[in-house]
Amino acid sequence: MNVSGRRILILGANGFIGSSLTLGLLRKNYDVVGVDLSDFNLNESKKFANFLFRKIDVLQNFDEVESLIKECDIVVALVAIAVPSMYVKNPIAVYNLDYEHNVQVIKTCVQYGKRIVFPSTSEVYGMCSDKAFDERLSQLVLGSIEKERWIYSCIKQMLDRLIWAYGKHEGLQFTIFRPFNFIGPKLDNIKAQQEGASRVITQFAHNILNSKPIKLVDGGFQKRCFTFIDDGIDCLLKIIENKNGCADGQIFNIGNPTEEYSIKELADILISAFKEYPEYTHLAENAEIVSMAGSEYYGKAYEDVGRRVPSIANAKSILGWSPKTDIRTAVKYILDYHLLGKDYEACI
Ligand code: UDP
């Protein structure tokens, strides 16, 4: 089947958002080509006849990516390093992949007249002090150059600006979206022994599981709004559907403003949730929580965001979307997957 307008190229299909989106699209009968370095998150997707996986290193073989862009209708460009510890450990690798590669993708979409759906990030708002971040009105507030943490935010901001400019001056059809702390079973590998290499929720679960102390950076007073992956995918499917062109030229925050918790509260929620699994209760009861300075945990190039709340008025009014999943339900899906081996893909 090759229905015009429904051929989607997902660059970075094996990632957390990519693999969930791929499956969501296949279930809605889109034709999907997924590109990534590996496909271990795509087992369910590979059962669909209208899915094709292409193993490509996009930094080495852009020619192949270009051919695929030519053949599709919509490009979802998800290839990026998006782990805060990497922004301070290897900012040049972050730049090469996140910036250089995506500029190529954007320019190729312009060249062949393809629609691009592009992931910006809640990080672009940086240390903005607004109570809720507005896509059009909020200031984007970054720290100084030696605070290398901001390289990712700055790269994404530049890519947003480039896409916007191509949209305005050269007719690029685009939608930009900004995920706010998406969480879900396949976010990071809970079993990996890499302190600081995962997002906070998987790091904490890993630490409980391995009887290592949970480290609250700077006391864990900083807050995040946690968004369950299925809610995020639901919004992305509406963006891709693009009813009457409603998503064209728009920027959408995708987040769950009512599920705002401090990092310390998140640790408590996880510990309580672990206690519900008899085999793991003893680990939760013995879980240790310590506080650690951000400069010690990440190094001096780190700077944190105190609060990060999305305004989702745009997604509500234009797409008719709202998130539905609270953090405790999300945590249950995550722990059922990791501790009981339940298949998460069944719940999209
Ligand atoms: N954090 C923490 N302990 C950890 C890992 C992260 O306290 O072991 C904090 C981190 O400093 C940040 C928050 O948790 O304030 C969220 O971190 P994450 O890496 O998930 O991504 P961010 O929301 O900062 O993009």
Task: Explain what the structure shows.
The chain is of the alpha/beta class and 348 residues long. 39% of the residues lie in helices and 16% in strands. The protein is built from twelve helices and 13 strands. The strands form four sheets. The protein has a seven-stranded parallel β-sheet, sandwiched between helices. Strands 7-10 form a two-stranded parallel sheet. Bound molecules: uridine-5'-diphosphate (UDP). Uridine-5'-diphosphate is lined by residues 84, 181, 199-200, 203, 215-217, 220, 222, 224, 263, 294, 304.
Compact description:
This protein has 348 residues and is an alpha/beta fold.
Highlighted features:
7-stranded parallel beta sheet, single chain, two-stranded parallel sheet, 348 residues, binds uridine-5'-diphosphate, globular, 12 helices, alpha/beta
